Every structure is written in structure tokens, then in C-alpha cells.
């Protein structure tokens, strides 16, 4: 444990980078994914196609592949982001595909009759989404979104492979110095566990709030 | 990895269609035929060196010993990598792993079992994160993996050797005149492999450098080529190998560390370490070690094979 206590600041610095990646990646994914979900349920066919292609491409590719493409592929076509930015963009773009499907799934749980009722009352597409469909849909999305959050937390460790000095990367560096792989990875694993558990707990609290105590 | 315009267009197309998995292959090959990998060029000579290396007398392998287990099994289980240029690299076409470390393992397997075929060594992939554990729980018999002998590691595993002395060196682009020694790395972006002791060398000798850790040699080369990194710091022989295939790179200065490589063995079996050290003494004496060096590392380092390092000469061995 000496290696952990002696290098606590270094590890916590890595934790901070992991949290930054997680927050940027997840918030970015929420925004982009919601827009994509709206595309996918919109009455305009080309938008639906864009949403479908995005989801099927990004969802079915390993995150590590995406990271390597953005970090080492894009500079060859003249676009170079910093390593951290690249990783955050990848996390957001990747998770957005899953958010999109979670949001779309939530929307589809609202009976089509409610959308028809909204339309017959003269609501536009945007108004019926905003006032009629999304509020009840959101309740069913909470748990899938928690799963995606956890995926982002754990997926952020892949950024270590492309040079981002986050928690896993720093754990590897400390192991080089100390040859204490088991202890170090137990500690970093426990940290990921705690972040994911906190995310799950926050999701549970949010679910109880939006469902008015009806969640089981 | 000189990339033509056509390749760039093709990358664009690949990104657009996200046929992503082929990219690594393209990146390695470019539009020119792939360069010959040093250390793999002449595998027939390499095979002869292993076949010509010594075989242990039956008396040297007492029943029930570490070596006897390997002999009974008929193969050495080696911990290592198949992605280390010059030291242990798998040829995707033949599936054969060759290089200085791979050759050392093959010679030890030959010494114990008398066999030289590909089955005499079974490679178990190890990383820096797993090497000590896999030795301790006897998943592998021995680790040959550019394994620098350090005192913290020597508390977990025994090191035979050192069998190779390397140094950490600096590679930059040819047009870079700002970096001439390790002292010039302060404030610069410096790439290195995440699982190398170069990370520690940088902490010690260039604490002001902004260190970027990548998973493998190819990623570090790409980072240097694309300007993400100003310098790439790693084992001199590996950098020489990179510079020999990438004319836009040059090495600067002399190596600024000494890296003694050892063979990782179980700590609780002193006889195993003695056995491997005896074998090292034999291949040092009969010239097999020098021939292997010449056929692998010697393809990128000029001059004759150096004098082998003295066994037990570093703390931890």
C-alpha cells in the first residue's frame, strides 16, 4: 500500500482526468444522443437515415478503434486535436449512439395514441415531444442512461492507450516504478467501482424523483 | 511509414466509411512495400545459431528440478511479447516469433530439451502489469521480455543475467535542432511506451518533460511523425530500428541510462537461477550469444557484438 499512499496526489490527478473525461463524454453524449433520437423519430426520412447510420456505425465499432482513428488517423487528413480533446470527443461520439437508442426506446414506450392526441390538439412535432412524449418517456430512460454512464466511466480507461494521463495510465506508470501490479490495479479498480456505484445511486434517486415514488 | 497523398485520400475514405479495422494495416504499410524488419531478415542464419547452441548434459538436469519439469514437458513456456521490434516480433506470414529475446528463449529451450522446432517454446503474452504475477504463480517458466532488472522487481522474482545491456536514447525528426540531449527535453512533449522503463528514466533525467505514454512502438512513431511529440525516448536499439525504416528520424546524443535486461525466474527456486546463469555462461563462452546479437540487434547497430555483461553485476541479479 506504500506505493499508493506515497503517490496519492499523482493518482488523484489521474482520477480528476478520468472524471473530466467522464463528465465531458457523458454530457456530450446526452446532448448529441438526444438530437439523434429526435432525428430517428422525426417525420423527415433523411434525418431518420442520418440517425440510423450514425447509431449503427458508432455502436458497432470498438471504442479503442475509434480512439486510435481519431488520435492517429485524423492528423493524416490535417486535423489534430489534443490527446485529451480527442479522447473526450470519442467518448461523447461513441456513447451518443447508445444514448440515442435509450432515448428512442423511452419515446417508443409512450403509446402512439398520445402522440396522435397531441397532434389532433394542434401541437407541432416539437411541442408534442416536449410536452407530451418526453416527460413520461424520461422515466423509462433513467436506468438505460445509468448503464451508459457506467460504460463511459469504464470506457475512459481506454484513453490510457492513446497517451491520456488518466487513472489507468497513471496506475501503469506506478506499476513500472514499484512492480506492485496487484495492489495498484485493485485500488484503481475500486475507484472505478465507486464512481460507477455513485452514478448508479444518483440514477436511482433521479428515477424515484421523476416517477413520483412509483419506481420499483 | 512514408505516406503518399493517395494514402491520405484513402484514409479519408476509410474514415468516411469507417471501415476502421483495416487502418492499422494500412498505416504500417503505406503505399510502398513493407520494409524488411531488421532482425527478421535472415531467419535461416538465425535458426542455425539456435541449432548450433549448446545442449545440457543429462547430469546438469537433476530429476524434479525446474529444468527437469521443462524437459519432461518438452517445451519451455516463455513469458514475453510478440510485438517488440528487434527483440521479439511475430512475422504475421509465418507465425514465427524472432528477435534477440525470442532467440535467447529458443536457445534455452534447445539447451534443456534438445529441440529447435517452433513447438519447443510456447509464448505466453505478458505485459509489464502481469510479468511478476505470471512468474510467481508458475504460469510461465521464464520471462524474456526486455525485462530491466530493478530492485523492486527483484523482491518479487529472481533475475538471471544480465544478458543484455541497453540504454535509453532520444529520437527526433531530422529537422529538429532544438533537442540535442536529455537536458533539452524540459517542457517538450516526449513520447514513450507505457510499459517501458524509459518512463522512469524520463522521471529521473527529464522531470520537466511532458511525457506522453502510448501502448506500442508504432503509436510512438506515429505521434513523433505527426508532431504530437517532439521526441521519442526508448531503448536505443529499438529507436535505431525505427530510424532505419523511417528516414525522417534521427537519434541524438548518447544513451543516457543503462538498462540491464534479465531473465525473470521464480524467486523461490535458486537452483533455477543458477541453472540459467550456468547456461548464459556457456553461450557467452562458445559465441552463440554474440552470433545471436549479430543476427538481431546487430542488424541496426554497427560494429561487432559487445562483450556480454557480467552475470550478477547489477543490483537485483
Automatic annotation (TrEMBL), chain A:
Cited PANTHER family: AMINO-ACID ABC TRANSPORTER PERMEASE PROTEIN YHDX-RELATED, MEMBRANE COMPONENT OF AMINO ACID ABC TRANSPORTER
Annotated NCBIfam families: HEQRo_perm_3TM (TIGR01726)
The keyword Transmembrane helix appears for this protein: yes
Membrane-related topology note: Multi-pass membrane protein
Database matches in InterPro entries: AA_ABC_transptr_permease_3TM, ArtM/GltK/GlnP/TcyL/YhdX-like, MetI-like, MetI-like_sf
Organism: Pseudonocardia charpentierae
Pfam families, A to Z: BPD_transp_1 (PF00528)
Origin organism lineage: Bacteria, Bacillati, Actinomycetota, Actinomycetes, Pseudonocardiales
ABC transmembrane type-1 domain boundaries: 15-195
Family recorded in the similarity comment: Belongs to the binding-protein-dependent transport system permease family. HisMQ subfamily.
Protein name from the UniProt record: Amino acid ABC transporter permease
Subcellular localization, as worded in the UniProt entry: Cell membrane
Keywords in alphabetical order: Amino-acid transport, Cell membrane, Membrane, Transmembrane, Transmembrane helix, Transport
Presence of keyword Membrane: yes
